[in-house]
Write a structure and sequence with these properties.
Blueprint: H1 9-21, H2 24-80, H3 94-99
Helix pairs in contact: 1-2
Length: about 100
């Protein structure tokens, strides 16, 4: 097992110790638990790196859809107006409102 570099050195050493002490089963169980915890830690770290990127990606998609819907609504509203070049005046402006004047539409 030690001659081939398939297994990690920790595994080879633990198997040697387990064989010498006669507790190979419990030693392999300990090694399996150790490797499982290491794999869980690496998986959690990968998820921690991927999650912000996915959040930003979803935000960009939702923003694109919102802008597309709003621009379509404004385009439809503008096409329904009698004069496409001008938006209708409300008759009130802040400056005239402060002066007490109201424009006629």
């Amino acid at each position: 097992m030690g001659k081939r570099h398939i297994f990690l050195p920790l595994m080879v050493q633990m198997v040697n110790v387990g064989e010498k002490t006669g507790n190979l089963g419990s030693t392999l169980s300990t090694v399996a638990d150790s490797f499982e915890m290491e794999a869980d830690d690496k998986t959690s770290a990968a998820i921690g790196l991927i999650q912000p990127a996915l959040t930003i990606g979803i935000a960009v998609v939702v923003g694109f859809i919102a802008v597309a819907m709003l621009s379509t609504m404004y385009g439809i509203t503008a096409s329904l107006m009698p004069n496409n070049n001008q938006m209708p005046r409300a008759g009130l402006s802040l400056a005239n409102l402060l002066k007490g004047k109201v424009d006629e539409v």
